[in-house]
């Protein structure tokens, strides 16, 4: 068992085109660290110095992790983590 | 080139007009690989702003999963500018994250007409494309 991480189109260049990859960890932050060890560069697309990037949405199963515990959100085998770039913009 | 039905163009324009002066946004889903916009999905602008839009994160999650289940992709991602022209702003370009999508912009700045334009935005580079409006996809 592992944690499935679903990767959006724009980040699949880091995963050799894979739509989903497996990773492990007990929190989201550990999971991202584990992802980085196998897919270098991915972490920088998900996080900046202050934490999760503002325009990247990360979901644990059906919930936005911002409403859970952010990077400290516990994760476990069998969970699914989904990454979606926020769709945003505007005239400003 | 974006080929899109008149019915969908009318729906996008109506959504933009209804939400004016706030920006309106949404997607038109279509079968993966078809490049054919079919299913109109107006989205909530979580920012409710005249100068910014952002899909509500939970609504986006549901819609993206639904597209996944139906083997669809966001063929068109649209939003409106309500006081400026229908051209991608620097903000639009920096957040564009679907390299395969047609980014449609409409402007509701004028009451008389609603410009409807389409772009590709890949790696920060904007390319305007022709919009072909058809009565049906035949």
TrEMBL record, chain A:
Q: Name one Pfam family in it.
A: ThiS
Reading the lineage from the top rank, the first entry is: Bacteria
Q: What InterPro entries does the annotation carry?
A: Beta-grasp_dom_sf (IPR012675), Mopterin_synth/thiamin_S_b (IPR016155), Sulfur_Carrier/Prot_Modifier (IPR052045), ThiS/MoaD-like (IPR003749)
This chain belongs to which protein, by name?
Molybdopterin synthase subunit MoaD
Automatic annotation (TrEMBL), chain B:
Q: Which residues form the MPN domain?
A: 2-125
Might you name a Gene Ontology BP term for this protein?
proteolysis
Keyword Zinc in the entry? The reply is yes
Q: Which GO terms describe its molecular function?
A: metalloexopeptidase activity; zinc ion binding
What residue ranges are annotated as transmembrane?
Answer: none
Domain of life (superkingdom): Bacteria
Query: What Pfam families has UniProt attached to this entry?
Result: Prok-JAB
Q: Which CDD domains match?
A: MPN_like (cd08070)
User: Which keywords, in A-to-Z order, does the entry hold?
Assistant: Hydrolase, Metal-binding, Metalloprotease, Protease, Proteasome, Zinc
Per its record, how is this protein called by name?
Proteasome lid subunit RPN8/RPN11, contains Jab1/MPN metalloenzyme (JAMM) motif
């Amino acid at each position: 068992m592992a944690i499935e991480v679903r990767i959006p189109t724009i980040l699949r260049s880091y995963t050799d085109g894979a739509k989903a990859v497996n990773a492990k960890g007990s929190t989201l932050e550990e999971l991202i660290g584990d992802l980085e060890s196998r897919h270098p560069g991915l972490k920088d697309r998900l996080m900046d110095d202050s934490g999760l990037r503002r325009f990247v949405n990360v979901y644990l199963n059906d919930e936005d992790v911002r409403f859970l515990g952010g990077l400290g959100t516990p994760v476990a085998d069998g969970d699914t983590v989904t990454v979606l770039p926020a769709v945003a913009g505007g005239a400003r | 080139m974006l080929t899109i039905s008149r019915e969908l163009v009318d729906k996008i324009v109506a959504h933009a007009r209804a939400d004016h002066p706030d920006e309106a946004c949404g997607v038109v889903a279509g079968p993966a690989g078809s490049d054919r916009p079919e299913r109109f999905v107006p989205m909530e602008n979580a920012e409710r702003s005249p100068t910014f839009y952002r899909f509500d994160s939970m609504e986006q999650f549901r819609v993206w999963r639904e597209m996944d289940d139906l083997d669809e992709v966001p063929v068109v991602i649209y939003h409106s500018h309500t006081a400026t022209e229908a051209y991608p702003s620097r903000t639009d370009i920096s957040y564009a994250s679907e390299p395969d999508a047609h980014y449609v912009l409409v402007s509701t700045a004028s009451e008389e007409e609603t410009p409807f334009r389409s772009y590709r935005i890949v790696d920060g580079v904007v390319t305007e494309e022709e919009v072909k409006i058809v009565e049906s996809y035949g």
